[in-house]
Specification:
By secondary structure, the protein is mainly α. The chain has helices spanning 2-11, 26-30, 38-45, 49-61.
Length: 80
Amino acid sequence: MLRYIHQNPLSAGIVEHIKDYKWSSYCEYTDKARIIDSDFTFKIFNTNRKKTISEFTKFHEEKNDRVSLDINEKKRIKDD
């Protein structure tokens, strides 16, 4: 799920690389975390922090084939 979120600006054509989107938390994981707790996510990859960042970066650079659900139908919902 995190890769999907980080790759959204790429999919939308806003940036050419994940790290270039300034509102993303991606750089918090790969550089220096100031507002996130990266340890929770990094435990999934590896216990060695340096190796973990490398694996995290590689994982995020892989193409995500996950299909998102685009809903174009608009419905007006009333309180009734």
